[in-house]
DNA sequence: GAAATTTATATCGTATACGATATCTGGAGT
DNA sequence: ACTCCAGATATCGTATACGATATAAATTTC
């Protein structure tokens, strides 16, 4: 039987490897937009920040490279990945397809509890002031609606796409006061789920994502034509 | 001006890092099914095979982990990822959606040259005996049809899904003599593109992928209920 | 004074080295 | 003979060390 001391020590034992810890933390920083696109990620600097050597840092960066969040430049280091407007447009189109599918499969199956949980996320979302909390609540609202589909891989793929574009969505949202369409669209989507209407849930979800995508692309094209963003 | 000797030396200089070279080679071995699911990937062994140290090997494995081809077991090493029948089913469903979309967008735009190229891949495919060459030609046939869509990200996502299930598709195909439906379906798809019919191209492509998925899942369920596959 | 070349410096990519963890082997105890 | 524990062995995960490459600075050349 393990002693109390051993249990306490086990608590201190990292369940995650150093490499995984660095990867998780960096991933969040990139998705949240704390690290701007194109930012050079110096390995020694990151290693010092996490009190580890470069080895786990490089492993973490390789992991994020495969996930599309980081780009390696041979002998020049890793940078936060940049997406063109066209690429973002494609990602949003794919998201629209997959999320519409998830909504269609989930709507007829969803439980009252899940709907209530989604409604709570939505209420909190509507009140949340800062863009950081907003991103998480938006994801929680949508993913809560999708779980009844019983398609974990589909949701994981959606999440992966979400991670790639999230920082751009937030940049737009922090510029757009009031979120004109978002609130109404969310309410309509939730209502479709309440009615257990698969067609409405799918189509409203598709339109919601495509609408966000269109706003995003026009904002980016506008922004980059002016600012001369590298 | 660089001397001839320097240019020759530059030829020998690896355009790829050791880590990327290992990743590419391992990825191909896994996708092609040379390394069976669950196989332990010993770092020292792989390092010796490539005449490098463990560091680039681990970076390569981390990259493949993020791509879903490898799974790390803490302090026990990396294994070739295994997929359940349900997971394969989900991946094939998503492929069906994305490939139908690519076909729909591409069909009205496709050039005669692209169609001829696809036809050549198809002819070679029909004659190819071994399953190894088959996989590449199948991909070439389909991807050639999709390129006119002008959606590189969509195609990359399809390819990523393809990589995850390809080894299972091949295992089935090597068991199935003659490929009953595949040849006819391919011919029908190509014909839809010849007619520049987006609806037919999309629906036939969707059915083709879903058909392959259904065969795959029933084969796997059958196989695993008998053999007691770990 | 500007362009080109050399030197210096910083950072990367990888080999080596070593402690930590898991698995294997053999013996003690029942 | 079987279980349980201890030591040995193998493999992993990471720190340290160092050659290679790119960028910046200094120097030379025209």
Overview of this protein structure:
2 copies of one chain form a homodimer. The first copy, chain A, is mainly alpha-helical and 230 residues long. Chain A has helices spanning 4-12, 18-31, 43-50, 54-66, 85-106, 112-127, 131-146, 152-175, 180-194, 198-227; strands spanning 40-41, 70-73, 77-80. In chain A, strands 1-3-2 form a 3-stranded antiparallel beta sheet. In chain A, helix 5 packs across helix 8 (152-175). Chain A is globular, with a radius of gyration of 20 Å. Chains A and B meet through helix 4, helix 5 and helix 8 of A and helix 4, helix 5 and helix 8 of B. Chain A binds a DNA duplex (30 and 30 nucleotides) through helix 4.
Task: Give the strand content of chain A.
Answer: under 5%
What class do helices, strands and sheet pairing of chain A give?
mainly alpha
Distance between the termini of chain A: 60 Å
Widest sheet of chain A: strand order? 1-3-2
* Average pLDDT reading of chain A: 90
Run of helices and strands of chain A:
HHEHHEEHHHHHH
Enumerate how many helices of chain A there are, as a single number: 10
Helical proportion of chain A? over 70%
Unreliable spans of chain A are: 1-12
The value of Rg of chain A in angstroms is 20 Å
Largest interface: A-B, 26 and 26 residues
- Could you state the oligomeric state of the chains shown? homodimer
Features:
homodimer, 230 residues, mainly alpha, 10 helices, disordered N terminus, DNA-binding
């Amino acid at each position: 039987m393990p002693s109390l001391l051993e249990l306490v020590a086990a608590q201190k034992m990292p369940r995650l490897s150093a490499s995984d810890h660095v990867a998780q933390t960096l991933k969040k920083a990139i998705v949240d937009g704390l690290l701007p696109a194109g930012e050079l990620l110096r390995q020694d600097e990151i290693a010092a920040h996490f009190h580890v050597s470069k080895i786990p840092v490089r492993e973490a960066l390789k992991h994020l490279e495969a996930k599309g969040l980081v780009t390696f430049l041979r002998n020049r280091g890793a940078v936060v990945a940049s997406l063109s407007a066209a690429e973002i447009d494609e990602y949003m189109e794919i998201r629209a397809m997959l999320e519409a599918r998830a909504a269609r499969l989930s709507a007829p199956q969803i439980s009252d509890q899940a709907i209530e949980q989604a409604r709570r996320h939505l209420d909190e979302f509507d009140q949340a002031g800062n863009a950081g909390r907003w991103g998480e609540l938006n994801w929680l609202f949508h993913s809560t609606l999708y779980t009844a589909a019983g398609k974990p891989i589909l949701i994981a793929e959606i999440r992966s796409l979400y991670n790639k574009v999230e920082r751009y969505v937030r940049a737009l949202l922090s510029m757009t006061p009031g979120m004109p369409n978002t609130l109404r669209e969310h309410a309509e989507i939730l209502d479709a789920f309440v009615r257990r209407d698969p067609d409405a849930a799918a189509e409203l979800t598709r339109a919601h994502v495509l609408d966000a995508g269109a706003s995003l692309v026009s904002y980016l094209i506008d922004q980059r034509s002016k600012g001369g963003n590298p």
